[in-house]
Amino acid sequence: MAGTVPIIKPPYGTLTAFDLASGEQRWQVTVGDWARIRNHPLFKDLGLGPVGAVGSPGPMVTAAGLVFVTGGGSALQAFDAASGRLLWSAELGAFGYAVPMTYRTGDGRQFVVIASGGDGEDGVLVAFALP
């Protein structure tokens, strides 16, 4: 058999929004993927999508209401803070277990930057310009 599997069902990593006034959950989405589990021989016929990543790193929220997070996978994702809808995703080309950061240049252009690599991969910073 190809490795161990968790005894609880997925998702293993989620992003959850709460209404701070009422304390009620607004939305919850699966974030990241654990390919070793999703592709495990015991689950091959289930057609599982992303199962979420264990111990996912934290998100970053912009003033415009975008939530950026890697979920511990190899893609940076942007969600709408109001609805939880996935708006954008980009492959990093390496493991992205880090919290994104943002900066704005003197001419007002905003960038989101994420560290990627590790676990035997070279570490690099990947930057994306916001429109």
Your description of this structure?
This protein is mainly beta. The chain has one domain (14-129). 3% of the residues lie in helices and 39% in strands. It is built from one helix and nine strands, in the order E-E-H-E-E-E-E-E-E-E. A four-stranded antiparallel β-sheet has the order 3-4-5-6, with no helix packed on it. Strands 7-8-9 form a three-stranded antiparallel β-sheet, with no helix packed on it. The radius of gyration is 16 Å and the shape is globular. The model has no long low-confidence stretch (mean pLDDT 89).
What is the fold's blueprint, element by element?
Blueprint: E1 14-18, E2 25-30, H1 35-38, E3 60-61, E4 66-69, E5 75-80, E6 86-91, E7 101-104, E8 110-118, E9 121-129
Antiparallel strand pairs: 1-2, 3-4, 4-5, 5-6, 7-8, 8-9
